[in-house]
Amino acid sequence: MEYSHGDSTRGLKLVCKLAVLLFLCAAAASGQLTDDYYDGCCPQVYRIVRSRVFAAMKAEVRMGASLLRLHFHDCFVNGCDGSILLDGSNSEKFAAPNNNSVRGFEVIDAIKADLESACPGIVSCADILALAAKYGVLLSGGPGYDVLLGRRDGLVANQTGANSNLPSPFDSISVIIQKFKDVGLNNITDVVVLSGGHTIGRSRCVLFSDRLANFSATNSVDPTLDSSLASSLQQLCRGGDGNQLAALDVNSTDVFDNHYFQNLLNKKGLLSSDQGLVSSSDPGVAATKPLVQAYSTDSRRFFCDFGKSMVKMGNISPLTGSAGQVRKNCRAVN
Ligand code: HEM
Ligand SMILES: *[C@@H]1O[C@H](CO)[C@@H](O)[C@H](O)[C@H]1NC(C)=O
Ligand SMILES: *[C@@H]1O[C@H](CO)[C@@H](O)[C@H](O)[C@H]1NC(C)=O
Ligand SMILES: *[C@@H]1O[C@H](CO)[C@@H](O)[C@H](O)[C@H]1NC(C)=O
Ligand SMILES: *[C@@H]1O[C@H](CO)[C@@H](O)[C@H](O)[C@H]1NC(C)=O
Ligand SMILES: *[C@@H]1O[C@H](CO)[C@@H](O)[C@H](O)[C@H]1NC(C)=O
After folding, report:
1. Would you identify the CATH topology of the domain 166-310?
2. Closest Cα to residue 233, out of 266, 209, 264, 201?
3. Mutation test of ligand 6: which of 229, 232, 252, 255 has the most ligand atoms closer than 8 Å to its C-beta?
4. Which GO terms describe its molecular function (predicted)?
5. DSSP one-letter code for 223
6. How far apart are CA 224 and CA 267, in angstroms?
């Protein structure tokens, strides 16, 4: 703390500081997230999160993608409440969609440590996830959008919820659309545009190798997978433990752009749930395919809709006001 001028001024400064905190942070706590929540009480939050994400991506560019996914997997389980960050026996980290899969926890810890020294007890872990995702996208070349803030942190993890709510790459398009609806993302645009998050990042072989061999009685390889991409993936995935990594966007792996959608039209989607948006016989495709086509030729529209849907996703059942708490350590309740 910066109270270094002796006892007489210390008391006065503390009162001022408390007044500022109570007034400006609490005033915004009206049950709604706002884009200026920390402007009065921790204006450094943007710079601090951005510089930590920048450093992490400089060490490993993929981290931008990993942080984006962390926010998504937080929001789909008990809302955007930082529950994915909690350690312990009921931890969401060990649910099937997350185990050995979600990553970036150390980056969140480092951001939290910086924020606890700059503005102790002020910035929630749930808001850190939302901001880290934003900078992961932006620093990968994607759109900027105004993140809404003021979330508080949940008190429980929900491993069962993580197992049931998160979409699987083996789900049909209808099931995926339903899982988005279940958390309030009821516009098919949300499903398609947020799937565009797969323009960055990687997937392990175990999650798509069913497409590469013994696919069906009539086709050894998934017929909706480009054959030269299939050969290179077969080579990558042969042998090993299934944890080998392939780019979700084979065209421009670490750049946030609309090539993901172009790939789908060229049978170059990696996951069955990616390619299924245009190639499956699911009835949902009547709505998803035209959107893929639109985004494949209009990257401005992709960027604009992506930002809108990220804000919508970030607004899934947030805790506000005096609900929950602001954790001091993102891995444990206070
Ligand atoms: C639509 C349903 C979705 C399914 C079925 C799905 C499935 C997957 C799978 C299986 C992986 C690879 C995990 C692994 O290798 O262990 C993955 C990675 C990823 N997903 Fe999704 N996902 C979906 C939606 C989203 C959404 C909405 C976003 C964000 C807006 C997103 C962002 C990412 C990112 C960035 C990665 C790469 C992470 C990294 O490299 O660390 N996904 N997804
Ligand atoms: C998570 O993965 C580890 C290592 O592969 C495995 O030992 C463990 O059983 C998995 N946990 C759950 C809950 O499936
Ligand atoms: C866990 O998530 C499920 C599915 O969203 C929900 O029905 C359940 O109430 C949640 N449990 C807790 C303890 O939050
Ligand atoms: C769905 O989202 C798109 C893009 O954000 C928007 O233009 C459209 O009006 C939305 N549709 C409904 C029914 O809300
Ligand atoms: C899958 O196909 C390969 C050759 O294409 C064959 O050797 C293997 O036995 C098959 N596996 C199963 C489980 O059918
Ligand atoms: C990506 O796609 C663009 C446009 O279709 C093409 O010009 C470029 O060669 C592709 N790059 C890679 C690495 O596949």
Report:
1. Peroxidase; domain 2 (1.10.420)
2. 209
3. 252
4. heme binding; lactoperoxidase activity; metal ion binding
5. T
6. 6
Q: What is the pLDDT of residue 30?
A: 67
The residue whose CA is least distant from atom 12 of ligand 3 is 158
Q: How far, in Å, is the centroid of ligand 1 from the Cα of 321?
A: 31
What is the reported pLDDT for 164?
A: 98
242 marked as part of a ligand binding site? no
User: Domain extents for the chain?
Assistant: 29-163, 166-310
Cα distance between residue 128 and residue 123, in whole Å: 7
Does residue 248 surpass a pLDDT of 50?
yes
- pLDDT of 225 over the 50 cut: yes
E-strand ranges in 139-295 read 202-204, 245-247
Question: Using only C-alpha atoms, what is the Rg of the chain?
Answer: 21
Is 66 within 8 Å of 60 (Cβ atoms)?
no
pLDDT at 21 over 90: no
73 part of the active site: yes
Cβ–Cβ < 8 Å for 33, 315 = yes
Q: Which CATH topology does 29-163 take? A: Peroxidase; domain 1 (1.10.520)
**Which atom of ligand 6 is the closest one to the Cα of 262?**
5
Interval between CA 25 and ligand 5 midpoint (Å): 61
Q: Using a 6 Å CB cutoff, which residues line ligand 6?
A: 251, 259, 262
Q: What is the pLDDT of residues 41-61, one digit of tens each?
A: 999 999 999 999 999 999 999
Q: Which ligand is nearest to the CA of 213?
A: 5
Question: Which pair of structure tokens corresponds to residue 281?
Answer: 């016989």
Closest CA to 162 of 76, 70, 72: 76
Residues contacting ligand 5 via CB (< 6 Å): 213-214, 220
Q: How far is CA 86 from CA 18, 52, 53, 151, in A?
A: 29, 21, 20, 16
Predicted confidence (pLDDT) at residue 110 exceeds the cutoff of 70: yes
Question: Six-digit token pair at 316?
Answer: 């899934």
As a residue count, the chain comes to 334
